[in-house]
Amino acid sequence: MDKLFIVSSSPHIRSNVTTQKIMRDVLIALTPAMVAGIIYFGTRALYLTVICVITCVLTEWVYEKLMHKKSTINDLSAAVTGVLLAFNLPASASWWIAFIGSIFAILIVKQIFGGIGHNFVNPALAARAFLMTCWGVRMTGGAFIPIDAVTSATPLGILKEKLAESLPSYINLFLGTNVYGCIGEVSKLALLIGGIYLICRKVITWKIPVVYIGTVFILSLIFGQDPLFHILAGGLFLGAIFMATDYTTSPITPKGQIIYAVGCGLLTVMIRLYGAYPEGVSYSILLMNVAAPLIDRYSKPRVFGIQKVKKLKKKSEVI
User: What is the structure's pLDDT at 277?
Assistant: First the structure.
């Protein structure tokens, strides 16, 4: 009996990696930063994270139910968005800030544009930008430490005010001790552990995080700033590892990823040094998210086996 050959469109080789497995790995990688947030900010950090996650998941479920779409809450993408949004909030944020931000992230940024894989910017960062626009004072008032009931500016805010004597040490910035900021950004050690886990699991590559952080380091040095302080302060590690690497909103090609990461680093430094806002990570990633399709278009590798057809000079010669 002759063998039957089945002809089908690509891809012919499929991986057993699913969205749920990827998002589960991301949640595992975020766990060290979550633990650090609880240690430094108390149960308030856990409280806001739970609100964000539950609201994100429920918003996705309700929308898909009303639109008669297949439920995607089991892929854990909504849960990841909730955790990342909570990590971008100060511990002093009210519960309704987390609630509104979560609805905006899932409903407006993600689902309205078609759901997972179709959003053109990172939902968590877009929600943070929205909250910053609407309630700037509540989002920039610094993080609240329940243990001693003290509020203070973030390290980048202190630098912006040129209060050099109040700047935290490098070790405090790296570990997150006695440092004010958003819930998930203070401990660089915890974020680094999560990033190494994602690279080892091949969920992300080193290109975007390393080039992004390296660009900020080099440009800070060029502009006469303390490069080590600039890479350890603020949300650079959180943004570079967990949000700039988002599959949907970052370039696909290796060359494009490097261009994208350099652009993020350049915009971050420009906003920090010359903008009114002391932190530039969120807006730099959002701007480069929009540019990602264009970067992919002009950085795609050459396709072999295809010859470009030369344009004929005369229209009459066109067949």
Answer: 76
